[in-house]
Predict the structure of Transmembrane protein.
Amino acid sequence: MPVRGHPGDVLFAGEYELSDEPRTTTDLKIIDSKGFLLYIRQNATKGRFSFTTEKQDKFDLCFYSRSPMGSGKVPDQMVKLNVKSGVEAQDRKGTENWEKLTPLEAKMKEIEQLAQSIAESSVLFMKRKEEMESTNASTNSRVLFLSIISMACLSAVALWQVFYLKRFFKTRKLIE
């Protein structure tokens, strides 16, 4: 199951729980786009994981189920997976002054951090939008230039063909 790309230095945290199937072992592997192993857990039934990205990337979370040879088909398993990233993944209970806040203040602080994260994401999306618009404009101008060249070449070949056929038919004395 791929996880969308995110900008660098983002914390990912997750919890998983698998349904219990007798005589079945399940392994969890988290792999980045270059094939580097970020997390591995053998005989995974329930647990947590976390890792931090260094740059924007895509990650695959893979659950591999195996059963003993000769036991037939590997039974289906229910997987409960909860993955959080960025501000949502941070454990606020360990930070200083968090214990001193009332539940309402803590929730307000959490919402403030989420709003700040959304604002930062918005700025990132605006930069990406500008880059994509620039790329789109340059691609459109190149396509237009190549289309004009193609039409000019096609017109030149058609004109040459008309003159060639006219000369050919004159030499064969089919037209005067």
About this structure: The first strand starts at residue 2 and ends at 6. The chain has a mean pLDDT of 86. The two ends are 75 Å apart (CA to CA).
